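Researcher: I'd like a structural prediction for the single chain below. Treat it as a standalone chain; there are no partners to consider.
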Amino acid sequence: MRWLALIVVLLATPVWAVEPGEMLDDPVLEDRARALSQGLRCPVCRNESIDESNATLAKELRIVLRERLVAGDSDREALDYMVARYGEFVLLQPDTRGANLILWLAAPALLIVALGVGWTTIRRKRATPETLTEAEQAELDKIMRS
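Model: Treating it as a single chain, here is the predicted structure.
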């Protein structure tokens, strides 16, 4: 029974990432802060949002985000502030415009190119069957008769 309790506690730790002392009194602002913090990457944990992370830096980012919302920033202004301070890396879902568009399209484009090269290579291999020279055919016939 203790093992089950330990497993439940370990699996529930991301739920405890936002500490009660960080939470805002206004439920509307708190909901906005939670929604925004779920889209921001923890610089320490890499692919974990600051809402889920227990890292000290994630806690500081959650506090800064809430301070910006209390100061009257809109969601866009608060996100722009975080991006200006930490770069686009802090966004879990980066912008798909400008130079980032190249990054978003590069992988599918390379996949299409690779599939085209593979398909062409296979077609060429099938179209040109290898034939034996006369000497090789004679050697094969000799082996087959033995």
